[in-house]
């Protein structure tokens, strides 16, 4: 009887060891039923959102997010391209596949977004905070700052996106390469450069100046090109000709909206002719999509390369 009891004890003991061993193996292999490796929690401007790990069907509601995804080798299935695919700049177009337009950035189509069955939506704080709940009902949504962001905030957003899409390591590699390229461009700016610059969007009836805290303004400042507007709470300022004369920029980078702009009207005005940039032939027309709308790593490099080429012929 004792021998049978002892044998039964040994059998139970061995069985328990086997069960423990299997459990440990499952945990080591990530096969535990309670494992959350198939999800990731992302902190963003509207709180925290749990999204599937390595999302594949991504909708981008700002061009800067398209830039970020393209930089790490991912093509979004849907883009808010303002119903105009020509706004996708060449360096980005070369890196992404065909996509579905989901309408304008200001008012994207919920119906089209839903039809794409995305597993991640990337939205902008200023444009989309009021429809965040509606977007979240379609798919997990993260909200970042793009429209109102400066250059540093764009870099922060890029890092968040790389984590969200499961490419944190590659994202860091891309970011380091970007920073290295920016330093190379900065080295082309003379240390004694003291001219002040002013980027602006010019439309048929308005001059929208971008100050030192705007995306383009802060980007140019990062390589030593100081902005003519160093104060003011508004990053984007609609100013008149008299104010342009007052700020008196030495260099103007004009992002033209259409063939005819307010500059055509001002050119016959003596005040315009007295602006330092105009007197010295330092007025440069640049692409609005690249310089204002995209706001990303790829577009930032393109902007600064063009700026340096215009100013120094490098």
UniProtKB/TrEMBL annotation:
It is a lipid-anchor. Residues 57-314 form the Fe/B12 periplasmic-binding domain. Keywords: Coiled coil, Signal, Transport. SUPFAM superfamilies: Helical backbone' metal receptor. Residues 168-195 form a coiled coil. It is found in: Cell membrane. Residues 1-20 form the signal peptide. PANTHER family: FE(3+) DICITRATE-BINDING PERIPLASMIC PROTEIN, IRON III DICITRATE-BINDING PERIPLASMIC PROTEIN. Belongs to the bacterial solute-binding protein 8 family. This is Fe(3+) dicitrate ABC transporter substrate-binding protein.
């Amino acid at each position: 009887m004792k021998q049978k009891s002892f044998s039964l004890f040994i059998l139970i003991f061995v069985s328990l060891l086997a069960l423990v061993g299997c459990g440990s193996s499952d945990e080591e292999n990530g096969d535990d039923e309670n494992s959350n490796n198939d999800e990731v929690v992302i902190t963003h401007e509207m709180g925290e959102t749990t999204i599937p790990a390595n999302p594949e069907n991504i909708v981008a509601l700002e061009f800067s997010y398209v830039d970020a995804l393209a930089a790490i080798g991912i093509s979004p299935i849907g883009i808010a391209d303002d119903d105009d695919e020509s706004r996708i700049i060449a360096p980005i177009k070369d890196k992404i596949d065909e996509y579905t337009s989901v309408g304008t950035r200001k008012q994207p189509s919920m119906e089209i977004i839903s039809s794409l069955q995305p597993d991640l939506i990337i939205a902008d704080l200023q444009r989309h905070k009021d429809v965040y709940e509606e977007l979240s009902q379609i798919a997990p949504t993260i909200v970042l700052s793009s429209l109102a962001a400066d250059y540093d905030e764009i870099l922060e957003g890029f890092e968040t996106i790389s984590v969200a899409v499961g490419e944190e390591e590659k994202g860091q590699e891309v970011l380091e390469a970007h920073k290295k390229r920016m330093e190379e461009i900065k080295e082309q700016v003379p240390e004694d450069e003291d001219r002040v610059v002013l980027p602006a969007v010019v439309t048929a009836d308005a001059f929208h100046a971008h100050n030192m805290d705007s995306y383009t303004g802060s980007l140019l400042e990062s390589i030593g090109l100081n902005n003519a507007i160093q104060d003011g709470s508004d990053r984007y300022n609609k100013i008149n000709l008299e104010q342009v004369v007052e700020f008196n920029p030495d260099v103007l980078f004009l992002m033209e909206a259409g063939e005819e702009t307010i500059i055509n009207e001002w050119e016959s005005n003596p005040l315009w002719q007295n602006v330092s940039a105009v007197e010295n032939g330092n007025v440069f027309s640049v692409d609005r999509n690249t310089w204002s709308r995209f706001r990303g790593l790829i577009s930032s490099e393109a902007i600064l390369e063009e700026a340096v080429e215009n100013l120094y012929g490098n």
